[in-house]
Each structure stands twice: as C-alpha cells, then as structure tokens.
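Feature request, filed as a ticket because there's no other form

It would be nice if the structure record came with a short human-readable summary line next to the tokens. Right now we just get the raw output. Example of a typical job, pasted below so the devs can see what we mean:
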Amino acid sequence: MNRKLTLLLAVLAALALAVTAGAQKKPPKPKAPTGPILAQFNFKGATFTIGSKQFTEQLVLGQIAKAALQATGASVKDQIGLGGTAANRTALTSGNIDMYWEYTGTGWITHLKHTKPIADSREQFLAVYREDLGNNIRWLTPAPFDNTYAFAVRKEVAAQFGVKTISDFARLIRTRPKDATLCIGNEFSTRDDGLPGVEKAYGLKFPEDGLVKIEEGIIYKAVDEGKICNFGEVFATDGRIEGLGLTVITDDKKFFPIYNPALTVRLDVFRKYPRLARMFKLISDKLTNAEIQKLNASVDIGGKFPEEVAKAWLKKNKFMK
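Raw output as currently delivered:
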C-alpha cells in the first residue's frame, strides 16, 4: 500500500511540474512582417482616377496616393492638379475622378454649407464623414496635421506694424490703412471660411485698394519681399513660412476651422475596394505637421518635383521599395 501511495504521489508531482513548466513557457513572438508595408495590399486589375488641387501640398498628397496605389498593382489615371476646391468636388461627385484629398473644415463649411466649425478635430471629422455619406462620398481616416488658413508677415517688420493677432488689424486699418495691404488667393477672397468670414467674425474691413489677389503659390514670396503687400494669406503647414522667415499672426478668436486632410472616395468605388480604408490609414497616420512641412519645403524651397518627394517619403517610411 505504501509503495502504491508513494508511486501515486510521484506521478502527481511530475504532472504538477509539467503543468508549471508549460505555464511558464512563453508563446513564441509573432514574426515582424518583412518587406514593404504596401505588399500586404493587392489592387492588381483595379483602375483609379486621382485628382487634387493645384497648390504644393495637394500635389504632394496626390502623388503619394498615386505612387501607393501603383505599388499595389493598380493602374492610376492622373488628374493631379485638376483645379481648385470646386473643380475637384464636382469631378468627384460626377464620377470624373474616384478620389482626392480634402480637408475636414472645407468639407464642413464649403461643401456641406455649415457656418460654424466644430472645435474638436475628431468630432469635426465624424460630422463630415456621416453627413457626406448622403452624397455618396466616403471620407477615409484623416491625417493628424492641420493645414488651417493663417495670415503671415515678414519677421523684420512685424514689430513695426504691431499686428500680433488678427484683432490687431482693426487698429492698423484705422490708423495706417496704407500699410494694411493683404495678398490673398481668389478662392480665399470668396469663401465663408476665408476673408469674408474673417472680416465678419472680427468686425473689420480691409481697404479694397489694399487687397491684392494673386495665385496662392506666390503669396509667400510677395509677403517676404513686401513690395505689393505687407501681409498674406498662408497655409499653416507650408514649409515656406519657416524657410522665408515669416511670422504667423495669431487667430485670437479661433475663427479658422480645423483642416485635417483625408482621402475622399466615391462610395461605389470604396464599396468595391474597402481595403482602401486600411491602406490609407497607415499612410495618413504618418502625416504629421512636421512631416508635411518638410515635404512642402522640399518642393517649394528645395526645388524638387512633388512626384519624387512623394516616392522618397513612401520609401523612407517603408511603404514601398
């Protein structure tokens, strides 16, 4: 009996040791994926038409989308640099293009006709996303960078004019109207989230003879030179702000909406290729303010082509070889 009991105890002890050893043994770590990130997506046989607006940032974003889709085997029809906001939106809704990068603030105010922006960036995106589904447009995950409008002045004369905030323009317009010269783009001059909205929100009116309407791409140089205007409409993520030594004027009433970019896709195209959402989320997540400023500066200051800047960025971030 004692021998049987001893044998039983020994078996139980061995089983307990085996269970303990098994519990302590960690499962093997999953192997990290090798190769380019975009290799996990396959859009071979698909054809997409991509549009974009005409300024540098939009050209770079359009080229990023184009190169990324081509890396997955898709064919891409290039309509990058198609035109302004209205031209791209019309092309999207009419089916002439399949996708283009749009900004949440623009979607909410310009396309969906709301007058009051939503201060929280996620809530702003969700509101645009939900409402625009009714227009058969699917917004993909937005990038974290915020390309809001701003006004800028060259640093060396900022103190001379005494305009640190947009509210300060009221005093300059009243006491030195000839110095309140402002370069703006045609689109900004008519948008509710542009000059008309600014003047209404701040209770001021720029002198008509001091408003200079020129292409947005050359405003930065014009402000830096100070010959035709002392102030200018700029995009907050433009690399030329730092490159040319411009000072951004504070939007003290926080008038300008949040402008996070997202790829907008026709709903029928998205339903056919739903993995576009996952792919462009991976890309959008990397597009921070610092990153997009570098990309913009590479074109506007470094003199590189948007296509080569886009491809270099995708390679640097391991999206493609």
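Something like this underneath would help us a lot:
The chain has a mean pLDDT of 91.
The chain has two domains: 47-146+259-316, 149-249.
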